[in-house]
Amino acid sequence: MAGHGSHAHPAPGVTIDYFAAGSGRPLVLVHGITESRRTWDPLIAPSIAAGYRVVAVDLRGHGDSSKVPPYDLATMAADLGAVLEEERLDDALLVGHSLGGAVVSAYAAGGPCRGVVNVDQPLSLGAFQATLLQLQPMLEGDAEDFQAAITAIFDDMAGPLDEAERWRVDHVRDADQDVVLGVWDLVFRTSVAELDAVVDSLAEAITVPYLSLHGIDPGPDYGPWLTTRIPSATVEIWPALGHYPHLVEPERFLARVVEFDR
């Protein structure tokens, strides 16, 4: 697969690595927490074949990018902006999974792009906060407790990934405790009201076409909640596919992205 590895420098001492290949309309892929751009490998060649120039990014603290704090959402969105500037892209379709879905949403609230596909990352964080707070003692504990918590989280969300693909995703995963706690610090340290205010401010600034695609149903209230804040949003549920619908049914996922991007 023709392409090149490259990097951007959003701040002194920080390198954000990414892979770019193909030609055509730009499609930027952003992975979830503890993972890397390699999580997207099954979709990169088909996306190029579909006529896209694909840019797959390693978030700060992940993959081959620098492990330099802070790891908050605004910083990661700025890092993504540095990659887009390096590649001279101001009209990319941004596709983010999990944490990547939050990052591309935060970027779209203030930066230029032609649309967003958010894969299985509800922006309403109240329920997620409640779950995470239950695991906080383990996540902040020793290395064994931390790894046990991470394993429990992802085992619970894996859904119907086949054995080989689950093995691949698990071996792409590199859970660094400082990075994970840095990413989730806002959720740990912020009240529900304050967290809602942050999310509302971000969501209401997004005006581009927005597809929120879920393999884990966020509940019947989520669609109205999201479209009230992002009128351009479409919420779509692919039932019982778990946290990785794009990897469980990659051909269907790419076809949906192409359809959304027309």
Low-confidence stretches: none
CATH 2nd-level architecture: 3-Layer(aba) Sandwich
How many helices? The count is 12
**Gross geometry:** globular
The N- to C-terminal Cα distance equals: 25 Å
Whole-number average pLDDT?
Answer: 96
- Helix/sheet category: alpha/beta
Total count of strands: 8
The CATH class label is: Alpha Beta
Helix content: 40-55%
Query: Mind summarizing the main beta sheet?
Result: 8 strands, mixed
Radius of gyration: 17 Å
Number of structurally distinct domains: 1
Name the CATH homologous superfamily: Alpha/Beta hydrolase fold, catalytic domain
**Binned strand content:** 15-25%
Task: Provide the succession of SSEs.
Answer: EEEHEHEHEHHHHHHEHEHH
What topology, given as strand order, has the largest sheet?
1-2-4-3-5-6-7-8
CATH topology (level 3) name:
Rossmann fold
